[in-house]
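Hello, quick one for you while I still have it in my head. My current little project is about how a certain protein chain folds up. You're getting the sequence in one-letter code plus the fold written as tokens. Would you mind checking whether the tokens look sensible for this chain? Here's the protein in full, and shout if anything looks odd to you:
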Amino acid sequence: MTALSLALSAGPTAAGSSPSSELVEQVIGFHDPQGLWQDGIFRLQLDETRPDGPSRETTLLFDNARGRFEIATQREDAQIDGVLDRDGCEVRLNGSTQFNDEEKEKYRLSCERLEWLRNYYAYLWGLPMKLHDEGTFLDPDVLETIYQDRPVQAVRVIYDPEVGSDVWYFYLDTETHALAGYRFFHDEAKGDGEYITLEGQVEVGGLRLPKARAWYTNAEDRYLGTDTLVSLEILSP
């Protein structure tokens, strides 16, 4: 997958009632009817597979109320752990905070990388609830379209430049209002970027997250990988 960059233009609005904002509320109501995500603590175990490399086993912890993020990734040759909170960060390679420059570059061991991973995982696994975040702008109208050979409703989303520059489309089931998939463009006119298909759900305590997301390029329809949610725990509401 390419790096995600979450452009502000005339038209979309961040607040107020519109067909798209009302639909987004329905979608969030389906996935998180009790509003657990905003202030909860969650542990996710993932299996991440790529066509050009070995799979990774990754465990994530989000403490959304306290702004704490933990990640543990098991690769073929290394265990990488990181903790990021409001006081700073710590990165460990095979249990040690001591590593040389070669290891730092090979495994990308830095606080900047850890912060990127936090934003990446929190955004993707926090969807659609993350559409409530500040700096998110919805086109007011809901689109009727086809996604993966099925009729869906779509909402176009852009972001404040300080948040990101990509253009996103979120595709929603017309009956259940579940998230059916999404795509993003770095440059919508060029048709670049990627699209993501969703399959299955993991439901715990009323919170419903997609079980598997597969990534493809928009331009070539080339498969990039699949992230599977193996388990979900709610540690605190």
Summary: The domain at 19-236 is CATH 2.50.20 (outer membrane lipoprotein receptor (LolB), chain A).
